[in-house]
Amino acid sequence: MAKIKVSVERIEGHCDLPMLVGDHFYVEGSKLFIPEGKYICIWALQSMMLIFPILAEKDKLDESHWVRSVKNFSCPDPKGRVQYKLEVIE
To answer: Do 73 and 48 form a contact (C-beta atoms < 8 A)?
Structure first.
């Protein structure tokens, strides 16, 4: 499975954690890599987990598949509105 980099791209509200623009982590297979001294909100992570396996395989999907166009993801907290950028690292 490909490596996926998830980065905080912008914050449009108040994040209680707090996540900061530029914070990031990696997902590779079933492994989660978080830089030392950093963290990830479990609620944001839980809402993204369903897309990781299919995002890693997006190049094998038909050109019209919606996953091929996914580049961002929002935290489910309506007060935080943390926007994450999703990148498949080859």
So the answer is: yes
> Rounded to an integer, what distance in angstroms lies between the CA atom of residue 66 and that of residue 2?
18
DSSP string, the chain: --EEEEEEEEESS--SS---TT-EEEEETTEEE--TT----HHHHHHHTTTHHHHTTGGGS-TT-GGGG--EEE-S-TTT-EEEEEEEE-
The full set of domain ranges for the chain reads 6-17+50-90
**Token match 């905080």: residue?**
8
| Euclidean distance between CA atoms 30 and 1, whole angstroms | 9
Give the tens place of pLDDT for each residue, 17-34.
888 999 999 999 899 999
CA distances from 27 to 16, 17, 62, 70 (A): 23, 20, 23, 16
What does the block give as tokens for 11?
């914050």
